[in-house]
Write a structure and sequence with these properties.
The chain has about 90 residues and is α+β, with helices and mostly antiparallel strands. The protein is built from 1 helix and 5 strands. It has a 5-stranded antiparallel sheet with strand order 4-3-2-1-5. A hairpin with a 7-residue loop joins strand 3 and strand 4 (about 55). The protein is globular and about 40 Å long.
Amino acid sequence: MYGENVSANTERPLPIPDPGTLLADTSRGDRVGEFRGAAGPYWSLRPVGGGREWEVEPRYVRPALLMEQLRARTARLNARSRGEVL
């Protein structure tokens, strides 16, 4: 019978976002980062204001909410005005 061996819990691979897309890492308290690329089974994110990249499993990532995007971009602009980032 069709679908006999298909589990209802089968996870579909998530589409890979465009570089620079802002995402929230739910495994790290909804930390927002820019998508940098995929490395094996992990996605690489980087803080919006610069800094060290981190890796996360795609299942723990969601698109950043508008408020989270604004907060991250504002923090970057403030750091830039202080000369902390280029």
